[in-house]
Specification:
Blueprint lengths: L4 H11 L34 E6 L2 E8 L2 E6 L4 E9 L3 E7 L16 E9 L2 E8 L6 E7 L15 H13 L3 H13 L3 H14 L5 H13 L3 H13 L7 H45 L20 H13 L23
Antiparallel strand pairs: 1-2, 1-8, 2-3, 3-4, 4-5, 5-6, 6-7, 7-8
Length: 347
């Protein structure tokens, strides 16, 4: 499974920790320029940088850098793509979905694969696809080569959040130009996280002429409460990239993203704790029910879940009722249940 956006941001925490002490930041390792795609080993011809693809009812977006690519479909499937052959018009592309992703149940031992044969005619691609090596199951597919990956949300086969995820997947696959294409597409469609990631890539790898653009993206992203936008903005203020150096603003935005990530981690832990409590409660109820045989009991009142028993839930209810109605501190005697007479009170 690919890392989540939160995991990506948490990884950035480690990279940007020096900001917390207002020291000079320890920069992440340098990456290849976003404007320099790797040359294709398949042929001298290069695949289009991006296509919008459909196979049956399922449509998605593919991005390429040299002979490698990443794909994202509207249903959540993701894939690594490899251009095996391309002569400038006809091509063969192999697809491998990560084990544990949404398509794994449909693959062989969790490995979902496909091979796409296609031919380019103008801005249209048509071809056939074979899934999991089954040559008896060959289906048609088609794609378009857009001038812009997605000019509007309506024409885009995936959501802006999925475009951001596609950018993350591309970045993790060392396809930084493809990542930037995906981030900028999401950013131009108003996605705050897309703006934040695009700002970070422009800060780290972009040409000087685009640093001011990256700063504006970081400002917009941070103002929309995006963690990555806050991180990028803090770093740009710290280093004076795209703006004048401003240690006070760097510290302010560092404090903001640190507090936000800490709060999100705390919320996740609380949610996990609540889930564990619910599981324990249900287990206690089930064990209580199993311990009561057919569910019948001498209780004069049904338990809180519609049945009676001698489990921990019922015993706690007995004790609560005893003390609420003025029973002594020693607690109810053996065999006493809620609703029963309190000695010295009810008789």
């Amino acid at each position: 499974m690919r890392p989540s956006l939160l995991a990506f941001a948490l990884a950035a925490l480690t990279l940007f920790t020096p900001l917390l002490t207002a020291q000079a930041p320890a920069h992440p390792p340098a990456h290849p320029s976003v404007s320099a795609p790797h040359p294709s080993s398949a042929s001298s011809a290069a695949m289009p940088g991006a296509i919008r693809e459909c196979e049956g009812p399922q449509c998605g977006v593919w991005v390429f850098q040299g002979n490698k690519g990443q794909a994202m479909w509207q249903g959540g499937a993701i894939a690594d793509l490899t251009v095996e052959k391309f002569d400038g018009r006809a091509f063969l592309i192999s697809r491998a979905d990560p084990v544990g992703s949404v398509s794994s149940p449909y693959g062989i031992n969790g490995h979902f694969t496909a091979r796409y044969v296609g031919t380019i005619n103008g801005d249209r691609i048509d071809g056939t696809v074979t899934f999991n090596g089954n040559e008896r199951d060959v289906r048609p597919w088609f794609a378009t080569i857009p001038a812009t990956l997605c000019s509007t949300a309506q024409e885009c086969p995936v959501t802006t959040d999925q475009l951001v995820q596609l950018g993350e997947n591309s970045f993790n696959a060392n396809l930084h130009a493809s990542a930037m294409r995906s981030f900028m597409t999401a950013a131009n469609l108003g996605n705050a996280d897309g703006q934040g990631f695009a700002a970070y890539v422009l800060y780290k790898e972009g040409p000087r002429a685009r640093q001011a653009e990256g700063f504006k993206l970081a400002q917009a992203s941070a103002a929309s409460n995006s963690t990555m936008g806050m991180i990028a903005l803090a770093y740009m203020y710290q280093d004076g990239i795209g703006t004048s150096a401003d240690p006070v603003s760097a510290k302010y935005w560092t404090d903001r993203w640190q507090a936000k990530v800490t709060a999100e981690k705390h919320a996740q832990e609380q949610q996990k704790d609540r889930a564990n409590v619910q599981k324990a409660l249900m287990l206690a109820i089930i064990m209580s029910f199993m311990g009561s045989g057919d569910g019948s009991s001498s209780h004069s009142k049904p338990g809180m879940y519609g049945y009676s028993g001698e489990g921990p839930v019922e015993k706690q209810q007995d004790q609560d009722d005893w003390h609420d109605r003025g029973g002594d501190m020693s607690g109810p005697p053996d065999g006493w249940h809620q609703g029963g007479d309190i000695p010295g009170k009810d008789n």
